[in-house]
# Entry
Amino acid sequence: PESLRLLLLLRLVDVEPELMQLLEAASAQGPSFDAALLAKVTGQKRLRLLKRLAVLERRHGIVESAGRSAFRFASHGLWQVIHEAMQPARRRELHARCADALRTGEGPLDPEVAFAYVGHMLAAERLGDACADIPAAIEHATSQVHAVQGVAFLERVLAVERATTPDLQFTAFMQLARLRRLLGQPEAAHAALKCAARAAETACAGDLQGRVACELADAARVAGDTPEARRHAEQALSLAEAVGSSELRAQALHTLGAVAGSVGDHARSADHLREAVALFEQLDDRRGAAASALELGRVLQAVGDEPAAGEARAAALAGFRAAGDTRGESAALN
# Structure
């Protein structure tokens, strides 16, 4: 509400111009910020910066210490009014500085850092310079943050179509479909899959088309359309053989196993899933092996083989943990 925004702005009236500039720079990081990164962005020495943050905390009550180098704004509203009150050019400049401070070398960024880096490049309207880091950022967005936040991030990336290749669009749409399903939005998930299929066709990539077929099969399975699910899964397996992709074959076998299990064909389901686990392990794909092991555990439990089901669930849990997939780990524990 406008009345609340005005009240929050009144709290900033007595803040000295230098400290206000510091708050603007901090706001580029979000409601929480890191003092070490802020020092790089502003070019200030760490001790001087910490003294200024102490003034903002004790005299003005605008920020709060949240750890050794961590700080946060006293309220989400304060952060929002500071960030939105800046001139657009100033806001873009600060996000660009944050991105430059995060990019300290030529090598690939850690997924968490890549997520922050790409976010700043989006805000700086420089996404075209961050294409190499988008896959790692997408990985973090789809496995380590809340699905709502992940969806928002992916949609921001996809909105800058000129800065992304068909391969990147495919990856983003596939993960968007996954998150939409997690949020209980099947129609939006299906629309994202159709966009992924178009990106795969544009890229003329049989392996990408096969991955879409797997996802369409899984969506049909969840919707109870077994014939359609089996048709898409078998199409994916055929594409895997045509392009000679072990990765796609493993995914197709996983999907065929899940489809067979959904209609009570437990023996065939277990065979497909065991083969999928073995293939994923050969490929050193911990997350894929864990997902197939988890599905195998469900099938074995359905036929009353609790010892084997327990072993499969334990393997799935270990695999998700090794892959750093907190969402998968949660599914294995449930």
Notes: The chain has 18 helices and three strands.
